[in-house]
Task: structure prediction
Amino acid sequence: VYDLDGGEEGSNRFESAMHDLGSFLGFGSQRPEDTVGRGPDNLWALGDLKYLVIECKSGAILAEKISKGDTNQLTGSTIWFREKYDQSCTMTPIMIHPKTGFEFAATPHPDLRIVNRPGLQSLREAIRGYSIALAAGGGFKDVREVERQLRHHRLSAADIVGLCTVPQNAR
Result:
């Protein structure tokens, strides 16, 4: 959870923590940019042919807005996804960035969702609550209890985007 803090120095650590979190929550989790040199920082397979294409810009703490370059990088990752996955697969582009506004020249993907500072805080709090709930009563041994706690803490495939993201036009 602590590696999910923003900051310029820890971008690789942050991306690795996002990869580990995806696996911890039961999603297929990959780091295509790290492993093959192309694609998003993180790719989560949620099940039912649904994916999150995630670009991590947690180190952009001094930025006033989301840059055209960062926006273009996410657009490139969505193009990569379409090249690798057929039309039966759907994806939600996710930008992890402290800000929600864009530079004038940036053209964000229409379905883009942003994990901003409050969203990252909500995610960290949910992970803590989920972990404590499962550890306290030994619930981690029971698949149904794990599923119940994932839903309760809004960390399930159906709920996680709503838990920690805002639409691109949110202020």
Summary: Helices lie at 11-24, 32-36, 68-84, 117-136, 143-152, 160-164. The mean pLDDT is 88. The beta strands are 28-30, 42-47, 50-56, 90-96, 113-115, 166-167. The CA atoms of residues 134 and 142 lie 9 Å apart.
